[in-house]
Hints:
Blueprint: H1 7-19, H2 25-33, H3 45-64, H4 75-80, E1 106-107, E2 118-119, E3 125-126, E4 133-140, E5 145-146, E6 155-160, E7 164-172, E8 175-186, E9 189-200, E10 204-211, E11 213-214, E12 217-218, E13 223-226, E14 232-235, E15 239-243, E16 249-253, E17 272-274, E18 281-288, E19 293-301, H5 314-319, E20 324-326, H6 330-345, H7 363-375, H8 379-386, H9 408-423, H10 429-445, H11 475-491, H12 497-525, H13 560-572, E21 574-575, E22 578-581, E23 587-588, H14 590-603, H15 608-618, E24 628-629, E25 636-638, H16 644-658, E26 659-662, E27 665-668, H17 674-677, E28 683-689, E29 693-701, E30 707-715, E31 722-724, E32 732-733, E33 740-742
Parallel strand pairs: 27-31
Antiparallel strand pairs: 1-2, 2-3, 4-5, 4-10, 6-7, 7-8, 8-9, 9-19, 10-18, 11-12, 13-14, 13-17, 14-15, 15-19, 16-18, 20-28, 21-22, 22-23, 24-25, 26-27, 28-29, 29-30, 30-33, 31-32
Helix pairs in contact: 6-16, 7-8, 7-9, 7-16, 9-10, 9-11, 10-11, 11-12, 13-14, 14-15, 14-16
Amino acid sequence: xxxxxWLPWRFVVKTVARKHGFLDPIALLSRLHGFAQPSxxxxxxxxxxxxxxxxxxxxINSRVIQxxxxxxxxxxxxxxxxxxxxxxxxxxxxxxxINLSNRNWTAVGHPDxxxxxxxxxxxxxxxxxxxWSLDGWLLAEDGRCLLPSRVKDSRQWQDVGEVISVNxxxxxxxxxxxxxxxVELESGxxxxxxxxxxxxxxxxxxVLALRPSNPEGVSFINRVSLSKDRDAWTVExxxxxxxxxxxxxxxxxDYRNGDVHIHLTDxxxxxxxxxxxxxxxxxxxFSVKAGETREIxxxxxxxxxxxxxxxxxxxxxxxxxxxxxxxxxxxxQFLYDAAVASLILHSPDDVYPGPFxxxxxxxxxxxxxxxxxxxxxxxxxxxxxxxxxxxxxTSRGYFRSQxxxxxxxxxxxxxxxxxxxxxxxxxxxxxxxxISRGARWITNKRLRKETEAPHAGLLPAGFSAExxxxxxxxxxxxxxxxxxxxxxxxxxxxDSPEDSRAFREDAVDFTKAVDRSLxxxxxxxxxxxxxxxxxxxxDAGAIGSLAAGYPTQLCAPDDPRLLDCAEFxxxxxxxxxxxxxxxxxxxxxxxxTLHVAQVLLRAGDSRYLQLMDSVAELxxxxxQWPEAIHPGxxxxxxxxxxxxxxxxxWVLMVRNCFVREEGERxxxxxxxxxxxxxxxxxxxxxxxxxxxxxVSVSVRPDAAGSHKVEWTAEWHSEEPPIDVKLPGYEPVxxxxxxxxxxxxxx
Length: 746
């Protein structure tokens, strides 16, 4: 906002503000900026825009919800607005009312379908992005009504079989209600299905309810009409909901008359509703006989066009050839399978870090998610997503998803190298220019004019979309920059040796600059741990500096700076076994906890398993994690309620427990839990692509009570040195070409 530096403008703004009794905004902004390092990008317009939209809904929520608490609201509202619930949040000074305590939902969908319906913890289905929702109720003839969002206890699970579905069951005093949501193809068109099943000890009605709300709050409905055959709704004139049977009774209501739930028994039948403020509600009722089960299915077409993968067995087709886990621990098995399904759903073209709040693109999230796709053999999806990267590169070489992400170029170059390494290919000619320009951008962006400052030679101060704190010279960005330069040098070594040599030299110089800066930090802090930036003390933001160890492997597994940083985080920033990010997130983070676990796994520190177990316990009943988890209620408190980066990290953690690259060596079975070995069952993982080739690993018990590790591989070239490090056994360096290792206990 350089125009604000013009004196007359500053004077006018200050005068107008004071005249109307406001604080001087220029002085206030100046104070705020004083807490951060000077940066060319303060707050990216993309984040500001997203924040405005987010809080605009929260403002609407504040005008609607608290004045209409007799309505049936989504689960998060029923909990967050209940003064007796642990999720309750006082609202007196909250300008906007947003979901801060139960940001949990699960996506369902079909491979390569961009629409991702979501289901909340009580079965509320939101079929379209940020849309209205469908709910199921059970009304008994004696006036009792089973409302899942108000039931304290409910059972929910995800089926990851032939079709991905989310199932919810609720009950109350002789009333039982279940729902199932999934997506299937009908004539090549993806259709969301919502099946309700009700059983009651007394006669009653199964209610399919149309709701002007979703897991973020109010979502407007201005008009709804029932078809002549009474078997379908038309919502807003363009969306249809078809019932498997005609509605026997039907009611609608608007904002002035209150929720349709209030009028289920006191109104004549109606077929159309209009609400000028967008709070129309509707209910289709279907009779339930005492003691009998009644089932109704609603169908919602998600698109007018055929899906790219018009196969009835699409899920089976997607899973063929990907790395499969077979283990004796059902919960770990389920979480892995659910994470794989999550990765498939969220990679239709671009990769999304979430189906709702984060259904957008960031290079950072994409790098980690694509790495997971590659590491389990979903190479086609990874390649498709990577092919879209160059169109986001500016003429100066910046890979831009939003301004100010100084880590983006390094992450793009690193994941490109991972793709070529894991597939055993060399970059095609069309990649040479994007790679060169991307690396050159890193080289040109470094602060070379500074010679004595702690940030000399580093990347500029940035806003840190990883929520490490105010604008600063983050080592996270620098480590990714170095990794990107090294990756570019490797990828261009054959076809552009001069560029390769220049990028390698700059990577070395960049590393020296970071090392000098870290040495000054070590002197200042009196310990080797790496803070978030040269100007910070050790705090939760130091989690970003672990990037030097995972996933970039820029430093050795036993680097004192890396291990001391991890030790600090474990001692000061963990709550109940999980990393607590007290900046922005203010919650437990599954994916960041696993970053620490990966550092410990590389170092041979058995505590990695404790962190894995903690993350497993934090998963929702459907096998998902929100971005941040409330330490008290364990509900989602920040970000998307179905965080795909977390799913990616779980997949990568499991993969690295079986097979991981360590420099020029391959490490097998280094993280398999010893408790699995006690079950005397065969454990296996694969086929898993690695930088040396695709590997399948199995661990088999023998008659003597010991275990044998076996593997098969399709190497890209020569077989690498292989270390077998099965916990509970002496490490073994495998003999070349044997494909197995005989282990001995210490």
